């Protein structure tokens, strides 16, 4: 069993009755949302559903989109998928920016080491002609 200090917002530790109460919904609604794929609780060996605090926040957002904005469940499922995709892409972008900064720092380091012995970077002209000096514009 996990130490209580190891529990995160993604820890699937809430039974359906507690998650439903926290979300302000009936447990049957949570079962329906699970069947529709709107929320994915973990399962115990006996088949019981376990929800996380993040799942409860998602359930509240589903309820808000449905009741306040009038979005149907198919639309909500699409919105959730798109938000997950955007979140994943943001993570990838963050990684790529970190790699780019690392590469630039490495290049600066190499240029500093090479000093006066460094070859000038080759600049490309239209037609793929290479010039051994930078183009000034």
Explain this structure to me?
- With 137 residues, this protein is mostly helical.
- Helix content is 55%, strand content 8%.
- The strands form two sheets. A three-stranded antiparallel β-sheet has the order 1-3-2.
- Strand 4 and strand 5 form a beta hairpin.
- The longest helix is centred in the last third of the chain and has 42 residues, at 73-114.
- The protein is elongated and about 75 Å long.
- The mean pLDDT is 88.
- Our measurement of the CA-to-CA distance between the termini, rounded to an integer number of angstroms, reads 66 Å
Helices, by number, come to 4
Number of beta strands: 5
Radius of gyration: 26 Å
Strand content: 5-15%
Outline type: elongated
The helix/strand class is mainly alpha
Main β sheet profile: 3 strands, antiparallel
Q: Which strand order do you get reading across the main beta sheet?
A: 1-3-2
Helix content: 40-55%
| SSE succession | EHHEEHHEE
Low-pLDDT runs = none
Mean pLDDT across every amino acid position: 88
Entry keywords:
55% helix; 5 strands; elongated; 3-stranded antiparallel sheet; mainly alpha
What's the SSE blueprint?
Blueprint (H helix, E strand, L loop, with lengths): L13 E2 H8 L3 H10 L5 E2 L5 E3 L1 H15 L5 H42 L8 E2 L5 E2 L6
Antiparallel strand pairs: 1-3, 2-3, 4-5
Helix pairs in contact: 1-3
Give a nutshell description of this structure.
The protein is mostly helical.
């Amino acid at each position: 069993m996990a130490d209580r200090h190891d529990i995160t917002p993604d820890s699937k530790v809430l039974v359906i009755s507690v998650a439903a109460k926290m979300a302000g919904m009936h447990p049957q609604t949570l079962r329906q949302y699970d069947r529709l794929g709107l929320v994915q609780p973990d399962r115990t060996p006996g088949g019981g559903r376990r929800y996380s605090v993040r799942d409860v926040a998602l359930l509240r957002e589903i309820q808000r989109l449905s009741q306040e904005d009038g979005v149907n469940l198919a639309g909500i499922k699409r919105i959730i998928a798109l938000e997950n995709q955007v979140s994943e892409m943001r993570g990838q972008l963050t990684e790529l920016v970190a790699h780019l900064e690392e590469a630039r720092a490495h290049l600066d380091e190499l240029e500093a080491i090479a000093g006066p012995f460094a070859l000038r970077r080759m600049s490309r002209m239209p037609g793929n002609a290479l010039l051994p000096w930078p183009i000034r514009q």
